[in-house]
Predict the 3D structure of the following.
Amino acid sequence: MISRAQTILLILLALASLIMGGVLFRMRERAHQRMLAGQDSAPTQAPAVAAPEQATLMVADDDDNSLRSRVYSLPLPGDPGARARAVLGKLLDVYAAKDSNHPIPGGAASVAQVFLLPASSPALGSKPSTQADSGPEVAVVNLKSSFVASHPSGLETETLTVLSICGTLHANLPRVSEVRFLVDGAARPSLAGHADLTRTYLTSDAVPAELSPR
């Protein structure tokens, strides 16, 4: 038989349990409210965006098979490889536009990567150049196969695309003296059946006559 003292003790323990449960519930609710308030009041950090700079694109024109210099204001990264990819992305966006005089679908997404190597590098596997390097560079442009598959076939139109890429790289990264091409990271015989992608292109070949030093 439970004594009176034991009964009182059980009642007190039950009341203490109820009180502790209520306190813990209130603490949980307050912590949840503080968390929500912190999320609402925390300032949203804007993503870092490079300041706009002037970029010169060598844009192909199918009407007279020429390259024309056009200047755009673009947010350009400081890293040379990322900078090269950004200007080529803008160039291919120009070609993908409805009013393009050199129409090619795909746009900026067609450029997978751009690697910069010392011009004396004997192989594509050499390490990328750094800001400490001061000599001429080779730009290795890795295009996506979707861009190549949708590129119009023809010697003149393919050559204009290749030369416009070379000229645009040199206009924005003057140390780039040579350009090589890959497609999905591998060598490919031609762009769309005509322009040779196995050779190394000189950026000097992509400078229009009116821009060449006299």
Remarks:
- Residues 209-214 have pLDDT under 50 and may be disordered.
- DSSP finds four helices and six strands in the chain.
- The first helix runs from residue 4 to 41.
